[in-house]
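#structure-requests
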Amino acid sequence: MPERRPHVVSASIGFVLTLVGLAVTPRLAHPGEVDTSGWDCQLCAPSNGWEITAETGAGYVADDEYYFGNYTGLDDKGTYLAGDVFARYWSTHGDQLRLEGYRLGQDSRAILVKGGRQSLYKLRASYQAIPVRQYDTTVTPYRGNGSDQLTLPAGWVYAPSTQGMTQLDSAKHDVKIKQDWDIYTAGLTYTPTQHWNYDADYRRTERNGQDIYAGSFFFNTAEFTRPIDYHTDEVEAKLGYTANNWQLGLGYNGSYFNNASKSLTWDNAYTAGSTGQLALPPDNQAHQFTLSGSVLLPAKTTVNAHVSLGRMSQDENLLPYTTNTLIPTSTLPESSANAKVDTTNVDLRAVSSPIDKFTFEGQFRYNQRDNKTPEKTFDYVATDLFLSPTPVKNVAYDYDRYNYTLGGSYRIDSRTRVHAGIDHENFKRSDQERNDTRTNRLSTRLDTRPIDIADMNIEFYTERRDGSDYDQITNVVNPQNPLMRLYNMADRDRTGIKSYLSMFAGERASFGVDVEASKDKYNNSSIGLTESTYAGLGFDISYLLARDITTYATTHWERSKSSQANSQNYSSADWTGDTNDKFFTGTLGLKYPGIFRNLGANIEYTYAKSTGQISNDTSGLQSDFPNLETRFHQVKLGLDYPYSKALSLKVGYLYQKYNADDWALDGVSPDTVPNLLSLGANPQNYSNQVVFIGVKYLFDSHSGKASPPGK
């Protein structure tokens, strides 16, 4: 938004105050006085009473397009009813009620209710439905989809490859990959005195549906559906005390996850009499207690502190090593994992401005993960086919992370301020390739207004990570190449720049541009990620034409590139791979409030495209994967005709077109790959249109009644 000039702001405030004064001042009967009885303050909320806005209507979806219904629920052709509602109530005693409803009548509906008495208590509750639609082109021969037991039909022909499964075509049937989320919340804020306050919130998330999963027997793999029947309950409670110069708070967070299905069993489509079993996400809990506070000290100094202690746990029963009774295995060392992880988080921050023009900031953060899960030795069964001679042990990984930040800023004048800072992180890990990494970051930023109509900031930063010796982990079944360097622990040099410029010309025009670029170098990684770069560029512009016509445009471009090296022979690098991902998004819009008398119109077009390129160089032989591409077009058109002060007629139109090219899915039917029984998912491609016609009604909260039509 363009920034208002000081005299414009003063004039606007004065105009609003004049309207407020005229609205509340008793009318005096003096000769020649202007009659203000019909004047109305459009910016003033009523002192009491109701304000209600309701919008309802019917829409029509042109085609059955499954992915078009992702997050909207509009995946079926036909007519639907929908509407929005907004209502507010004030009483003379400070009681308030607020109701908001969006997309009522649709699968993506949402309702929010808030109420209470000012300065004493607040109540809140909400409900939101989120439809997730992924694939409707998927097919499977398995029965029992949505359950934890998948079986093949009677008469199934087992074969060592999918081409030999002669009953596949007659046995396969449609199965949709989708989920439905329902989110419920409720909360209370109670402030009995000016010093004490209490907060309590509850959130329940229910997820039902199925997604794509896979299991294998050595080299043979099958895709199938995994049941999703989760619910998560979250509780948050806070107690706070506020004094003149300090405040203190105590809080609790709890999370309780439950999965109705503990495991998934499926028939082996390649071999008769064989089944596989996989564990599904286990029931688990997480608890955290937090003590926080802040104090205002002399010399314009504020100190904030935050300490939390938590525990995560799960004790789901362990599954047997294998469902293959021909494989001799030992007894499980424990019936359950009895998993426990304790966490500690400390955050201490101070900000001080003891001297004019100078501001100093310091921060210390500490995060600890203490894994108390018992470590046991287990047999290792590979894909339900054979027992490895080398047993394995579950490793309880721990870490301690220390972070120190020191920074400051100096105000050169009313237009310019400079910032500088240093950040040091020490990350200590247990039982990993590198037990200690140290990262140092230096940054500087300039915030300035070089001319009256422009604001600009620019930031430079450089970062270096190194650490202890890199050691190979050998007590695993398949150890890594000793030359491998994991990207999150490897030595890394990073440099980058960020900049933003905004310009405005009075009330009519604004322009902004943001630039970001960074480069990572992994100079000591002969195997692993060796280099990555990022670049981003964005523009936004708006202009107010005559008759309050507004035009606007935004665009953003990004590119991310990376290079990695690896070895086919468990030795030095003999092949390299490069990725090059590009993203572009652009939007054009026009708002025309009086295109024909009182008729208002707005139109917006959005275009987005992404491209992914992967190339390999193996022993001098170059090969490229086909490009991954997505393209998205959207047109939105809206017409709004105010028939009266209370009643408006609305027409909306939406067009979307989405295309994706994905070589991993294109042309891959259930039997295309000999050792992959796939679900045959196709890349999402669709085009669809929606037309909506509705009415919007406003209850006049100032007069206590609706305005009559035509007035």
